[in-house]
Amino acid sequence: MMKKRSTASLPGFRITMGYTLFYLSLIVLIPLAALFLKAATMDGAEFYATITSKRVLAAYRLTFGASFIAACINTVFGAVVAWSIVRYRFVGRQLLDAIIDLPFAMPTAVSGIALMAIYGPNGLIGKHLIPYGIKTAISPLGIVIALTFIGLPFVVRTLQPALEELDGEAEQAAASLGASRWQTFWRIIVPSLLPSLLTGFTLAFARALGEYGSVVFVAGNLPMKTEIASLLIISKLDDADVPGASAIAAVMLVATLLILLSVQGIQWWSQRRTGRA
Fold first, then answer.
1. To bridge 218 with a disulfide, which of 81, 142, 191, 197 should be the other Cys (CB 3.0-4.6 Å)?
2. How far from 175 is each of 53, 81, 87, 169, 187, CA to CA, in Å?
3. Which of 22-26, 151-155, 169-173 has the lowest mean pLDDT?
Protein backbone atom coordinates (compact mmCIF):
# COMPACT_ATOMS: atom_id res chain seq x y z
CA MET A 1 0.00 0.00 0.00
CA MET A 2 1.50 3.28 -1.07
CA LYS A 3 1.62 6.16 1.37
CA LYS A 4 0.28 9.50 0.27
CA ARG A 5 2.85 12.23 0.13
CA SER A 6 1.92 15.25 2.24
CA THR A 7 1.83 18.49 0.32
CA ALA A 8 2.39 21.96 1.70
CA SER A 9 2.49 25.48 0.31
CA LEU A 10 5.90 26.15 1.89
CA PRO A 11 9.15 24.28 1.10
CA GLY A 12 10.38 21.39 3.22
CA PHE A 13 11.20 21.55 6.90
CA ARG A 14 14.95 22.02 6.51
CA ILE A 15 14.68 24.95 4.10
CA THR A 16 11.91 26.63 6.06
CA MET A 17 13.71 26.17 9.38
CA GLY A 18 16.95 27.41 7.86
CA TYR A 19 15.32 30.64 6.69
CA THR A 20 13.60 30.98 10.07
CA LEU A 21 16.85 30.67 12.03
CA PHE A 22 18.66 33.00 9.64
CA TYR A 23 15.97 35.67 9.91
CA LEU A 24 15.69 35.41 13.71
CA SER A 25 19.46 35.55 14.06
CA LEU A 26 19.76 38.60 11.83
CA ILE A 27 16.90 40.54 13.43
CA VAL A 28 16.91 39.33 17.06
CA LEU A 29 19.77 37.12 18.20
CA ILE A 30 22.75 39.00 16.75
CA PRO A 31 21.69 42.44 18.15
CA LEU A 32 21.03 40.86 21.56
CA ALA A 33 24.39 39.11 21.48
CA ALA A 34 26.05 42.43 20.64
CA LEU A 35 24.36 43.95 23.69
CA PHE A 36 25.82 41.33 26.01
CA LEU A 37 29.23 41.60 24.37
CA LYS A 38 29.26 45.35 24.93
CA ALA A 39 28.26 44.89 28.56
CA ALA A 40 31.04 42.31 28.92
CA THR A 41 33.67 44.96 28.18
CA MET A 42 33.22 46.07 31.79
CA ASP A 43 35.02 44.17 34.54
CA GLY A 44 32.96 42.32 37.13
CA ALA A 45 33.25 44.93 39.87
CA GLU A 46 32.32 47.79 37.55
CA PHE A 47 29.39 45.84 36.11
CA TYR A 48 28.06 44.99 39.57
CA ALA A 49 28.47 48.58 40.78
CA THR A 50 26.60 49.87 37.73
CA ILE A 51 23.57 47.59 37.97
CA THR A 52 23.24 47.82 41.76
CA SER A 53 23.54 51.57 42.23
CA LYS A 54 20.64 53.17 44.10
CA ARG A 55 19.52 55.14 41.06
CA VAL A 56 19.45 52.05 38.83
CA LEU A 57 17.64 49.90 41.41
CA ALA A 58 15.03 52.63 41.87
CA ALA A 59 14.51 52.72 38.09
CA TYR A 60 14.13 48.93 38.00
CA ARG A 61 11.57 48.92 40.80
CA LEU A 62 9.53 51.67 39.19
CA THR A 63 9.67 50.13 35.71
CA PHE A 64 8.70 46.60 36.70
CA GLY A 65 6.21 47.72 39.35
CA ALA A 66 4.37 50.21 37.14
CA SER A 67 4.40 47.77 34.20
CA PHE A 68 2.93 44.98 36.34
CA ILE A 69 0.19 47.22 37.74
CA ALA A 70 -0.70 48.54 34.27
CA ALA A 71 -0.80 45.00 32.84
CA CYS A 72 -3.11 43.85 35.65
CA ILE A 73 -5.44 46.80 35.06
CA ASN A 74 -5.49 46.13 31.34
CA THR A 75 -6.17 42.44 31.89
CA VAL A 76 -9.30 43.19 33.92
CA PHE A 77 -10.74 46.08 31.95
CA GLY A 78 -9.47 44.81 28.61
CA ALA A 79 -11.48 41.65 29.21
CA VAL A 80 -14.58 43.77 29.90
CA VAL A 81 -14.04 45.78 26.71
CA ALA A 82 -13.47 42.66 24.60
CA TRP A 83 -16.57 41.00 26.10
CA SER A 84 -18.72 44.04 25.32
CA ILE A 85 -17.54 44.23 21.72
CA VAL A 86 -17.94 40.51 20.99
CA ARG A 87 -21.10 39.67 22.94
CA TYR A 88 -23.26 42.77 22.39
CA ARG A 89 -24.51 44.67 19.37
CA PHE A 90 -24.97 48.41 19.84
CA VAL A 91 -24.75 51.67 17.94
CA GLY A 92 -21.14 52.75 17.52
CA ARG A 93 -19.71 49.28 18.13
CA GLN A 94 -17.48 49.35 15.04
CA LEU A 95 -16.26 52.84 15.92
CA LEU A 96 -15.38 51.67 19.44
CA ASP A 97 -13.61 48.66 17.98
CA ALA A 98 -11.50 50.94 15.78
CA ILE A 99 -10.67 53.36 18.61
CA ILE A 100 -9.06 50.53 20.56
CA ASP A 101 -6.28 50.38 17.97
CA LEU A 102 -5.38 54.07 18.33
CA PRO A 103 -2.52 53.44 20.80
CA PHE A 104 -1.08 51.06 18.16
CA ALA A 105 -1.17 53.69 15.41
CA MET A 106 -0.27 56.84 17.35
CA PRO A 107 3.40 57.78 17.68
CA THR A 108 4.43 57.46 21.32
CA ALA A 109 5.36 61.14 21.50
CA VAL A 110 1.84 62.08 20.39
CA SER A 111 0.45 59.77 23.06
CA GLY A 112 2.58 61.48 25.69
CA ILE A 113 1.48 64.96 24.64
CA ALA A 114 -2.16 63.86 24.62
CA LEU A 115 -1.84 62.37 28.11
CA MET A 116 -0.20 65.53 29.43
CA ALA A 117 -3.04 67.61 27.96
CA ILE A 118 -5.45 65.58 30.06
CA TYR A 119 -3.53 64.54 33.17
CA GLY A 120 -0.91 67.28 33.44
CA PRO A 121 -0.96 69.94 36.19
CA ASN A 122 -2.96 72.19 33.85
CA GLY A 123 -4.76 69.35 32.07
CA LEU A 124 -8.48 68.80 31.78
CA ILE A 125 -8.50 66.22 34.57
CA GLY A 126 -5.18 66.75 36.32
CA LYS A 127 -5.89 70.32 37.45
CA HIS A 128 -9.04 69.21 39.27
CA LEU A 129 -7.21 66.48 41.19
CA ILE A 130 -4.23 68.50 42.39
CA PRO A 131 -6.23 70.28 45.16
CA TYR A 132 -6.92 66.80 46.59
CA GLY A 133 -3.22 65.94 46.58
CA ILE A 134 -3.49 63.57 43.59
CA LYS A 135 -0.80 64.07 40.95
CA THR A 136 -1.68 62.31 37.72
CA ALA A 137 1.50 63.52 36.02
CA ILE A 138 5.12 63.87 37.08
CA SER A 139 4.48 60.96 39.44
CA PRO A 140 4.44 57.15 39.44
CA LEU A 141 0.66 57.35 38.95
CA GLY A 142 1.21 59.17 35.66
CA ILE A 143 3.56 56.40 34.53
CA VAL A 144 0.93 53.77 35.30
CA ILE A 145 -1.66 55.76 33.35
CA ALA A 146 0.63 56.01 30.32
CA LEU A 147 1.50 52.30 30.41
CA THR A 148 -2.16 51.39 30.76
CA PHE A 149 -2.98 53.51 27.73
CA ILE A 150 -0.45 51.87 25.45
CA GLY A 151 -1.09 48.32 26.69
CA LEU A 152 -4.87 48.04 26.43
CA PRO A 153 -5.05 46.96 22.75
CA PHE A 154 -2.82 43.95 23.40
CA VAL A 155 -5.29 42.45 25.86
CA VAL A 156 -8.41 43.26 23.83
CA ARG A 157 -7.06 41.94 20.54
CA THR A 158 -5.82 38.75 22.20
CA LEU A 159 -9.13 38.05 23.90
CA GLN A 160 -11.45 38.84 20.99
CA PRO A 161 -10.71 35.67 18.95
CA ALA A 162 -11.02 33.51 22.08
CA LEU A 163 -14.38 35.05 22.93
CA GLU A 164 -15.65 34.60 19.37
CA GLU A 165 -14.70 30.92 19.47
CA LEU A 166 -16.15 30.36 22.95
CA ASP A 167 -18.71 27.56 22.88
CA GLY A 168 -22.10 28.98 23.83
CA GLU A 169 -23.56 25.50 24.23
CA ALA A 170 -21.51 24.92 27.37
CA GLU A 171 -22.98 28.07 28.92
CA GLN A 172 -26.51 27.00 27.95
CA ALA A 173 -25.92 23.53 29.40
CA ALA A 174 -24.69 25.00 32.67
CA ALA A 175 -27.73 27.26 32.86
CA SER A 176 -30.07 24.33 32.16
CA LEU A 177 -28.46 22.43 35.03
CA GLY A 178 -29.24 25.25 37.42
CA ALA A 179 -25.93 27.09 37.50
CA SER A 180 -26.11 30.79 38.26
CA ARG A 181 -24.50 33.41 36.01
CA TRP A 182 -21.54 33.77 38.35
CA GLN A 183 -21.04 30.00 38.54
CA THR A 184 -21.13 29.79 34.75
CA PHE A 185 -18.71 32.69 34.48
CA TRP A 186 -16.13 31.33 36.93
CA ARG A 187 -16.38 27.62 36.05
CA ILE A 188 -17.02 27.71 32.30
CA ILE A 189 -15.95 31.03 30.82
CA VAL A 190 -12.88 31.95 32.88
CA PRO A 191 -11.09 28.57 32.49
CA SER A 192 -11.66 28.72 28.73
CA LEU A 193 -10.32 32.26 28.48
CA LEU A 194 -7.44 31.88 30.94
CA PRO A 195 -4.74 31.04 28.34
CA SER A 196 -5.73 34.05 26.24
CA LEU A 197 -5.87 36.26 29.34
CA LEU A 198 -2.34 35.23 30.27
CA THR A 199 -1.15 35.88 26.73
CA GLY A 200 -2.73 39.34 26.76
CA PHE A 201 -1.20 40.07 30.16
CA THR A 202 2.21 38.97 28.92
CA LEU A 203 2.05 41.14 25.81
CA ALA A 204 0.84 44.19 27.75
CA PHE A 205 3.50 43.68 30.41
CA ALA A 206 6.29 43.28 27.87
CA ARG A 207 5.13 46.33 25.92
CA ALA A 208 5.05 48.41 29.09
CA LEU A 209 8.58 47.40 30.08
CA GLY A 210 9.99 48.79 26.85
CA GLU A 211 7.88 51.94 26.62
CA TYR A 212 9.72 55.27 26.47
CA GLY A 213 8.09 57.92 24.29
CA SER A 214 4.78 58.37 26.07
CA VAL A 215 6.18 57.90 29.58
CA VAL A 216 8.93 60.48 29.22
CA PHE A 217 6.32 63.24 28.91
CA VAL A 218 4.24 62.37 31.96
CA ALA A 219 6.91 60.97 34.29
CA GLY A 220 8.82 64.15 35.03
CA ASN A 221 12.01 62.04 34.87
CA LEU A 222 13.11 62.73 38.44
CA PRO A 223 16.01 60.44 39.48
CA MET A 224 15.07 58.02 42.29
CA LYS A 225 11.41 59.04 41.95
CA THR A 226 9.96 58.98 38.43
CA GLU A 227 12.87 57.81 36.29
CA ILE A 228 12.21 54.59 34.36
CA ALA A 229 14.90 52.20 33.16
CA SER A 230 14.54 53.18 29.50
CA LEU A 231 15.16 56.82 30.32
CA LEU A 232 18.16 55.91 32.45
CA ILE A 233 19.62 53.96 29.52
CA ILE A 234 19.15 57.00 27.25
CA SER A 235 20.85 59.18 29.88
CA LYS A 236 23.83 56.81 29.93
CA LEU A 237 24.06 56.97 26.15
CA ASP A 238 23.91 60.78 26.22
CA ASP A 239 26.86 60.68 28.60
CA ALA A 240 28.74 58.39 26.15
CA ASP A 241 28.62 55.58 28.72
CA VAL A 242 27.73 52.82 26.25
CA PRO A 243 28.95 49.93 28.45
CA GLY A 244 26.92 51.25 31.39
CA ALA A 245 23.81 51.55 29.24
CA SER A 246 24.42 48.04 27.89
CA ALA A 247 24.78 46.64 31.41
CA ILE A 248 21.45 48.11 32.53
CA ALA A 249 19.77 46.94 29.32
CA ALA A 250 21.21 43.43 29.74
CA VAL A 251 19.76 43.11 33.23
CA MET A 252 16.41 44.36 31.96
CA LEU A 253 16.53 41.83 29.14
CA VAL A 254 17.35 38.86 31.39
CA ALA A 255 14.75 39.83 33.99
CA THR A 256 12.10 40.33 31.31
CA LEU A 257 12.93 37.00 29.69
CA LEU A 258 12.64 35.15 33.02
CA ILE A 259 9.30 36.77 33.76
CA LEU A 260 7.94 36.01 30.29
CA LEU A 261 9.10 32.40 30.51
CA SER A 262 7.38 32.08 33.90
CA VAL A 263 4.13 33.44 32.48
CA GLN A 264 4.43 31.13 29.48
CA GLY A 265 4.91 28.21 31.87
CA ILE A 266 1.74 29.15 33.72
CA GLN A 267 -0.07 29.47 30.40
CA TRP A 268 1.12 26.02 29.31
CA TRP A 269 -0.06 24.56 32.63
CA SER A 270 -3.48 26.19 32.31
CA GLN A 271 -3.84 24.91 28.74
CA ARG A 272 -3.08 21.35 29.82
CA ARG A 273 -5.44 21.66 32.77
CA THR A 274 -8.31 22.83 30.54
CA GLY A 275 -7.48 20.29 27.85
CA ARG A 276 -6.60 22.91 25.21
CA ALA A 277 -2.94 22.02 24.81
1. 142
2. 58, 24, 17, 10, 12
3. 169-173
